[in-house]
Write a structure and sequence with these properties.
Layout: H1 2-8, H2 13-35, H3 39-51, H4 56-72, H5 78-91, H6 94-110, H7 114-130, H8 134-150, H9 154-168, H10 174-190, H11 194-206
């Protein structure tokens, strides 16, 4: 009903307040839908919220949510992720820009655009290395190792996975540890080092994720 009230209002402070209330209501509805696995419905709510949101600082969070739900629904997440990345850059938020760019790389891999994903993540790596966010760097490295593995650049995949593990294990980032072990194990298997691959996959099985 906030949207209806907003549409019926004259431009001004009251309409602005109603817009903010409508955005919050739609975002909450999208979050509830996503928690229930209804990601198509979540995207519909988020698209409506984006349609009434013009402030860059408000849009980036909506775009991030939409990208994640689109990926979960096997829909095109790349457009949302690209706009979110651009938005964080425009806001000067380097930390979130790094994380958003890593997510973009992951979505590109999932969409089969592995060459582009590798380029995006390789360009990002120096910036991630210079930041203080070690978890974000581990995320970038883990996804880059996956991209290299998918490109059959197996030696590079293993080296990057080892870097990701060196950061992620002490920080107990179990999802990233699992990702890096999986990528390294697959790369080892591809180059015929099957015993080492089995060892890595056994370690992966021990990570409770």
């Amino acid at each position: 009903h906030y949207l209806a009230a907003r549409d019926a209002s004259e431009a001004g402070p009251e309409a602005d307040a109603l817009t903010g209330q409508a955005r919050l209501a739609l975002t909450g509805a999208a979050d509830r839908a996503a928690m229930l696995g209804a990601h198509d419905q979540a995207i519909a709510y988020l698209d409506r919220a984006l349609g009434i949101t013009t402030t860059a600082a408000d849009r980036v969070g909506l775009l991030d949510r939409a990208a994640s739900s689109a990926a979960a629904a096997s829909r095109d997440a790349i457009g949302y992720a690209e706009e979110a990345t651009t938005g964080y850059r425009a806001l000067g938020d380097q930390a979130e820009a790094i994380r958003a760019t890593t997510r973009l790389g992951r979505f590109l891999i999932d969409a089969g655009e592995v060459v582009r994903a590798t380029e995006v993540l390789e360009r990002l790596l120096p910036e991630a290395e210079s930041s203080r966010d070690q978890a974000a760097l581990a995320d970038t490295l883990a996804n880059l190792s996956r991209a290299h593995m998918r490109m059959s650049a197996n030696e590079r995949a293993m080296a990057v996975a080892d870097r990701a593990l060196a950061i992620a294990e002490p920080l107990d980032l179990e999802d990233l540890v699992a990702e890096a072990f999986n990528n390294k194990g697959s790369a080892l298997n591809a180059v015929g080092r099957r015993r080492e691959s089995i060892g890595d996959l056994d370690l992966l099985a021990e990570t409770d994720v």
